[in-house]
Amino acid sequence: MYKTVDEIEEKIEKYFEDCKGYPLTDSKGKQMFNKFGSPVFVDVHPPTVTGLALALGFTSRQALLNYQAKPEFVDTITRAKARVEQYAEERLFDRDGSNGAQFSLRNNFKGWDADKKNDDSGDGKITIVNNIPRPEKQNE
Question: Considering only CA atoms, which of 2, 8, 139, 25 is closest in space to residue 76?
Fold first, then answer.
């Protein structure tokens, strides 16, 4: 299918660029902005391994994974899959809330479980308790 690493890398880069979409413009070609002043992009979609496989001309995700076994392409395809994973992990990491921290702890620290309930085993270990009730604000 592909003769050289450069050939497949070019297609991979095009796939990731296409995922970013393109700026929305008016009839005069002027870029459009949303009410917050940020540029509006259309045809934006998240990169996926299946999307990557189809963009590279494979019939399925599995066909790409099988092709990855070829020694000359293993590093290139592995890096492309890692870019897809990076995108997904960045979206899961919610910087403004506790979900991102919990995602990071669950996936990067073996044995961490945010849903553990407090026990009185007295073993001296710290136990994380989720959903601690907070006192309601009282009107002054």
Answer: 8
pTM recorded for the entire structure: 0.65
What CA–CA distance (Å, rounded) separates 119 from 122?
8
DSSP lists the bridge partners of residue 23 as 41
Taking the C-alpha atoms of residue 135 and residue 92, their distance in angstroms, rounded to an integer, is 29
The torsion angles phi and psi of 13, rounded to 5 degrees, stand at: -60, -40
94-to-17, 36, 75 alpha-carbon distances in Å: 24, 20, 30
- CA-CA distance, 12 to 23, in Å (whole number)? 21
Dihedral, CA atoms, 42, 90, 5, 43, nearest 10 degrees?
Answer: -10
pLDDT digits (tens, 9 = 90+) for 94-132: 666 667 666 666 766 666 665 555 555 556 666 555 555
Long-range contacts of 16-23 (CB under 8 A, 24+ apart): 16/47, 16/83, 18/43, 18/55, 19/44, 19/45, 19/46, 19/47, 19/51, 20/44, 21/45
